[in-house]
Amino acid sequence: MKLSSLSPKGLFHRVRRRAAVQTIQPGDPRLPQHVAIIMDGNGRWARKRNLPRTAGHEAGLQIAREITQECVRLGIKYLTLYAFSTENWKRPKHEVSFLMNLFYDSLQKVTTELHDEEVRIRFLGHIDQLPPKLTALIKQVERQTAGNQRLTLNLAINYGGRHEIIQAVQGLVKKAQEQGLEPDTITEEQFARFLFTAGQPAPDLLIRTSGEQRISNFMLWQTAYTELYFTSTLWPDFGPDSFRAALSAYKRRSRRFGGIKEGRRK
Ligand code: IPE
Ligand code: IPE
Ligand code: MG
After folding, report:
1. Is 204 an active-site residue?
2. Global pTM value
3. What digits encode the pLDDT tens for the residues 65-86?
């Protein structure tokens, strides 16, 4: 322990920091409505323990479950988890097939539980390119949970922001051809209706774990005004306390969307 943290001032700071984290109350209107997470660092977590990378993915899955629970508890309405990118196919075959099996098994296991908690599960990404068994399960889970309104859990699997934008352009062009749409009349709102996140608010907060400070092709359109939060904590170590610390940091941010802070008009 550092000497400074033993001094009354250090103690005060520590208590104050803890107090800030503890002020996260369910239903607080200053909480984000939509949190998106780049769950990174599973491989490094495993390597540190001399375990195979796959053990890191298993541990990471537990954390995803805990954070989902925390969002339900806090009344956060949307949670988006980046689980597999369009670039992750570059990984060794055995890791990719382990992940596909993990997605399948865990979806089978947790869907009923999440359904009981009134969680709607949606998928963002190129779903039809996944193993057929997984694609079929995904469609069934989406149907089964479609009426739930407590939390929308978006699972981004085989997701790429550039792919999402291209497929939105394709959808819009098709519509234009069929209905004779004038290019000049196309609005941002119209375009956004062709994204996987159609009808959902943009993320207020984007968290990336593991110390990397990049977007890695995640929600390129939607994060235009999202608050970014980077932490060196590896994803399997990112429990509800770390999540609440991120929410506290978010609450201290001043979002201006290009304007000026309210009350400072002179
Ligand atoms: C994130 O952890 C999970 C996926 C991308 C599926 P990583 O597997 O990228 O872990 P690191 O970055 O190698 O530590
Ligand atoms: C981003 O992590 C993708 C997911 C978390 C699913 P990566 O580990 O694939 O990102 P890079 O390669 O470090 O940018
Ligand atoms: Mg990684």
Report:
1. no
2. 0.92
3. 999 999 999 999 999 999 999 9
